[in-house]
Amino acid sequence: MNWGNTGAATVSEDQATKSAQEFVTEMGQGYWIGQPELALGYYEYMVQKDGKDYAELDVNGYTGQVWFENWHGPILNTVEVK
Q1: Chain centre distance of CA 13
Q2: Residues 41/5, Cβ–Cβ less than 8 Å
Q3: Which of 28, 37, 59, 80 could form a disulfide with 16 if both were Cys (CB 3.0 to 4.6 A apart)?
Q4: How far apart are the C-alpha atoms of 61 and 13, rounded to whole Å?
Q5: CA 82, CA 68: separation in Å to the nearest integer?
Q6: Structure pTM?
Q7: How many whole angstroms separate alpha carbon 75 and alpha carbon 24?
Q8: pLDDT for 1-48, tens place per residue?
Q9: Strands, DSSP E only, in 3-65?
Q10: DSSP state at residue 10
């Protein structure tokens, strides 16, 4: 999130992706991350397992802090909007 920050993110997409991948690697076998989406102040990743979306993972675009979104429960279904 970008609380109090202005301007472009200072953490690159490559840095954020590396941090996100390290996080899911520590979760155990079978987890991987999808392509990032840049939101306002953070990168958003879908954590996937067994070919399905499992959870959401975010990386702060200013500090590089990684957080696992587990407060909304398991992902039941995803819908792609075009």
Answers
A1: 11
A2: yes
A3: 59
A4: 8
A5: 26
A6: 0.76
A7: 16
A8: 445 556 677 899 999 999 999 999 988 888 889 899 988 889 999 988
A9: 31-33, 37-39, 42-49, 52-60
A10: S
